[in-house]
Design goal:
Elements (H helix, E strand, L loop, with lengths): L4 E5 L10 H12 L4 E5 L6 H8 L7 E4 L15 H12 L6 E4 L1 H5 L1 H8 L3 E2 L5 H13 L4
Parallel strand pairs: 1-2, 1-3, 3-4, 4-5
Bound molecules: cobalamin.
Cobalamin binds next to helix 1, strand 3, strand 4, helix 4 and helix 6.
Length: 144
């Protein structure tokens, strides 16, 4: 069986919005002939359970969308980077595959997002083409 590329929607802000950007990325990966496992945490009651039950042991990579870096609200001042970091740590309990970030919230401060979440790397801006380039070496077994 082929190794899938896992894509995670980390956006659990309520009311939920559909993860449009991640869906574009998923469609692109799928059209390039790779299997996709999309885990939408906005739709899961227990996010840890969703991660542990849906991440296969050897995916090509785990892509995670950070749509919102913060909620842009003067009153609530919510920041989502600590949450993204927790999520990256949880993913690492289940696989050694590289964790790659993307999304508009990520692309505001890409380098600090990678650093602060502990992800392996990120793709700044539109991800449809870059994610396919990333899946290919993963399939051959090496990112070196
Ligand atoms: C439309 C929109 C909304 C709509 C959403 C409607 C809907 N059903 O989706 C509404 C009005 C509801 C909304 C609400 C909010 N929004 Co809004 N919204 C936008 C807007 C204008 C466009 C988002 C979009 O759909 N883009 C189109 C998709 C295709 O592009 P994309 O998501 O960027 O995805 C591409 C890349 O980022 C990348 N990519 C995405 N994911 C991944 C994953 C991987 C692994 C990779 C490699 C690449 C990748 O590839 C994708 C395809 O090219 C953006 C601003 C902007 N111009 O981006 C703000 C924006 C995302 N929103 C923002 C905010 C803050 C919010 C709210 C928190 C506001 C609030 N306080 O309530 C809420 C949050 C709602 C929620 N539940 O998350 C901010 C986030 C900024 C930040 N600091 O984090 C933005 C950037 C606007 C801004 N202020 O600058 N929003």
């Amino acid at each position: 069986m082929s190794r899938p590329l896992v894509l995670i929607n980390s956006n659990t802000v309520k009311p939920p919005v559909s993860p449009v950007g991640l869906e574009y990325v998923a469609e692109s990966v799928s059209r390039a002939g790779f299997e996709v496992e999309l885990i939408d945490l906005a739709m899961e009651k227990d996010w840890r359970q969703a991660i542990s039950s849906r991440i296969p042991s050897e995916p090509l990579a785990v892509g995670m969308t950070l749509r919102n870096r913060d909620d842009c609200s003067f009153y609530s001042r919510k920041h989502f980077i600590p949450w993204a970091r927790e999520l990256v740590q949880e993913v690492r309990k289940h696989t050694h595959a590289p964790v790659v970030l993307g999304g508009v919230g990520f692309s505001i401060f890409p380098e600090s997002c990678v650093e602060r979440t502990g992800a392996d790397f990120g793709i700044e801006g539109d991800g449809e083409d870059a994610i396919v380039l990333l899946a290919e070496p993963g399939e051959k077994g090496s990112y070196n």
